[in-house]
Amino acid sequence: MGIFSRRRTETLEPDTPAGGGVAVLDLDPSLRTLTGHWVIDRPHSRIGFSVRHAMVTTVRGAFADYDSSLYFDGTRPEESRAELVIRVASVDTGVEQRDAHIAGTDFFDARRFPEMSFRSTSTVHNGGGTFLMRGDLTIRDVTRPVDLQLDYLGSVLDPFGFERAGFDGTTTIDRTDWGLVYNQRLEAGGTMVSEKVRLQFDISAIRASRPE
Asked: What is the DSSP string of 121-153?
């Protein structure tokens, strides 16, 4: 969402069908070859968000500066883990004045809290190339759990010899849970900025030459 911490992840307890025995979710065979350490290729990835503005439109933004540590286990997905540390002052919504406001004291307060992070705590395989990654999201020194829907998009050896794997991750949070409470009321009702924020992780990961 990258996204892979060094904590040991929880093991998925398989479902037991009514007739007895153990039901095993199908795992894409191509995932087995991906086991190992990866890093996010920033020029070809997007760590972003979207939020409703003035009740009628959506503002989208992304963060340009972050570090990632990823480990994916294609045989035992529950062992997969992620860590992502983002410099919040790198926010980019396409409007300089708005970026300064978001990085300022009304929202991220980047001078006091320069980084936000996601660190996974468990990964569950939901079948095929779909996973649920749970983790701790820290913003302004407030840490709360979030669930990240993570979808495997495929892998390829690119023309430059890099082994790439693609993932999409999404989750929706209530920003006020992390102390991001700034808002303005609209005369006709509602608020200027929605409390609900959708986080989006469009990831092109490159296999690391050594463990991160």
From this structure: EEEEEEEBTEEEEEEEEEETTEEEEEEEEEEEE
Q: Spell out the residues 6+ positions from residue 29 whose beta carbon is closer than 8 angstroms to its own.
A: none
Tokens of 81: 């883990």
The pTM score is 0.83
Residue 109 to residue 105: CA distance in whole angstroms:
4
Instruction: Provide the residue type at 77 as one letter.
Output: P
Residue with tokens 């479902």: 15
Q: Which two tokens stand for residue 126?
A: 């939901």
Rg of the Cα atoms in the chain: 19
pLDDT score recorded for residue 25: 61
101 near 107, Cβ under 8 Å?
Answer: yes
* Helix (H) and strand (E) counts in the chain: 1, 11
List residues bridging with 174 in a β-sheet.
196
Q: Which among 26, 14, 19 has a CA at the least distance from the CA of 129?
A: 26
pLDDT, tens only, 114-148: 999 999 999 999 988 899 999 999 999 999 999 99
**Assigned token pair, 167:** 């993932």
